[in-house]
């Protein structure tokens, strides 16, 4: 399979990202222009296309490109890819108009099944040269977290049929899914790709040091799920477990940084790649600090009461850590060129929206007055994100 196939698949993923961003713009302008659509339905479409259209398609494309033996798996991979597109397009055409209903649930279920097929396909066609490389171990763990996270959506149907959507178990199932998607599947996949890039540059982390890092990281992933349960005001043990998980995740990234500094990957990066990598490192640090804070009862309840903090954290993770991490890898592996000006537009939109969202949370916490035209400024500031993405797409399309 030629690299141009992977380049096309990354462009498809970027198209989904642009669509998700445009749906986000509709949501931002909803209280201003009063569009005639169901707000919650469009939220469902926005989140599904962002997570599953952009991140999942980009990650699986990168993973297949880097680790799979191509000659024996080309046709099957193409079938899996297009089955994924059917599920995604089905969700895109149903969620905005009916929310969670029969057709959207069918397409969501199809997506889960196809993701399992991809996992099986990947496991069978890993290139023998990778053996038990550190990068591959991380990718395998990431894919297992992807499967584990899907227990949340499967549980939702049972919970709605028995306990109802008002049950705390309904929200816990959603948080279970989101946690193991963000902090398990996506985060470990990015780390696995980073290790692959290091190994490709001739830097091999000693197996003993890597296994120590991986055990600490996995402990952090599992235990930080308890941070997602603190809104239920559980017993103190849950706060302790969540705090231990946050500390473990902090320690794992410090260890990864120490190990990565010994390599020569940075010396081989372009200016934009170096900028992307440094930005992701800063955002990961902020993410870890926020996790540590929410292990404390006071800040945990603050995040529950003032939802802007939670929304800001999720956007920090998705638009910042994960999406900018993906920008780094698609550019580094030559699959999609990230150029300076459209990237800076994207960053400008990210900084404006994050600042405003966290400001609103702080204002509610400290009883400040939110300044006039806050909603309009947030909406207009958000426009820089899809604008940057669309320019990236246009420039990459022009080069093919």
Give a description of the structure.
This is NnrS family protein. Keywords: Membrane, Transmembrane, Transmembrane helix. This protein is 80% helix and 0% strand. It has 400 residues and is mainly alpha-helical. It has a domain at 132-268.
Write the layout of secondary structure elements.
Elements: H1 3-33, H2 39-67, H3 74-98, H4 102-124, H5 134-149, H6 151-162, H7 168-200, H8 207-223, H9 236-260, H10 271-294, H11 297-305, H12 307-332, H13 340-366, H14 374-382, H15 384-398
List keywords for this structure.
400 residues; 80% helix; 0% strand; globular; mainly alpha; 15 helices
Summary of the model, kept short:
Keywords: Membrane, Transmembrane, Transmembrane helix. The protein is mainly alpha-helical and 400 residues long.
Q: Sketch the topology as an H/E string, one letter per element.
A: HHHHHHHHHHHHHHH
Mean pLDDT, rounded to whole units? 91
Number of strands: 0
Described by the principal axes of the CA atoms, the overall outline is globular
Oligomer: single chain
- Helix percentage: over 70%
How would you characterize the largest beta sheet?
A: none
* Stretches with pLDDT under 50, minimum 5 residues: none
Structural class: mainly alpha
Q: What is the gyration radius calculated from CA atoms?
A: 21 Å
Task: Tell me the span between the first and last alpha carbons.
Answer: 17 Å
Percent of residues in beta strands: under 5%
Number of helical runs?
A: 15
Keywords: Membrane, Transmembrane, Transmembrane helix
Transmembrane segments: 12-33, 45-68, 80-97, 103-122, 143-168, 174-198, 210-231, 237-259, 271-293, 313-336, 343-365, 377-394
Organism: Flagellimonas pelagia
Protein name: NnrS family protein
């Amino acid at each position: 399979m030629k690299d141009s196939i992977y380049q096309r698949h990354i462009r498809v993923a970027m198209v989904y990202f642009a669509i998700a961003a445009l749906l986000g713009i509709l949501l931002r302008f909803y209280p201003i222009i009063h569009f005639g659509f169901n707000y919650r339905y469009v939220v469902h479409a926005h989140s599904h296309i962002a997570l599953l259209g952009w991140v999942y398609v980009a990650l699986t494309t990168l993973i297949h490109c880097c680790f799979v033996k191509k000659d024996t798996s080309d046709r099957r991979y193409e079938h899996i890819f297009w089955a994924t597109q059917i599920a995604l397009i089905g969700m895109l055409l149903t969620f905005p108009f009916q929310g969670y209903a029969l057709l959207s649930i069918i397409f969501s279920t199809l997506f889960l099944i196809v993701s399992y097929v991809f996992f099986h396909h990947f496991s069978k066609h890993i290139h023998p040269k990778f053996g038990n490389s550190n990068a591959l171990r991380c990718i395998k763990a990431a894919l297992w977290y992807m499967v584990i996270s899907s227990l949340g959506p499967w549980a939702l149907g049972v919970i709605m049929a028995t306990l109802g959507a008002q049950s705390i178990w309904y929200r816990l199932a959603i948080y279970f899914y989101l946690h193991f998607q963000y902090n398990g599947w996506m985060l470990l996949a990015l780390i696995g790709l980073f290790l692959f890039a290091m190994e490709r540059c001739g830097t091999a982390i000693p197996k003993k040091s890597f296994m120590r890092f991986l055990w600490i990281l996995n402990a952090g992933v599992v235990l930080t799920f308890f941070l997602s349960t603190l809104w239920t005001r559980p017993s103190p043990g849950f706060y302790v477990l969540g705090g231990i998980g946050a500390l473990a995740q902090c320690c794992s990234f410090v260890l990864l940084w120490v190990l990565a500094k010994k390599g020569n990957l940075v010396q081989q990066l372009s200016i934009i790649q170096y900028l992307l990598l440094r930005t992701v490192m800063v955002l990961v640090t902020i993410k870890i600090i926020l996790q540590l804070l929410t292990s404390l009862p006071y800040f945990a309840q603050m995040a529950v009461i003032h939802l802007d903090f939670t929304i800001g954290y999720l956007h920090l993770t998705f638009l910042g850590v994960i999406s900018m991490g993906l920008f780094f890898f698609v550019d580094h592996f030559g699959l999609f060129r990230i150029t300076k000006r459209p990237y800076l537009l994207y960053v400008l939109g990210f900084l404006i929206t994050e600042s405003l969202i966290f400001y609103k949370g702080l204002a509610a916490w400290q009883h400040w007055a939110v300044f006039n035209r806050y909603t309009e400024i947030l909406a207009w500031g958000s426009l820089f994100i899809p604008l940057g993405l669309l320019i990236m797409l246009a420039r990459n399309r022009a080069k093919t």
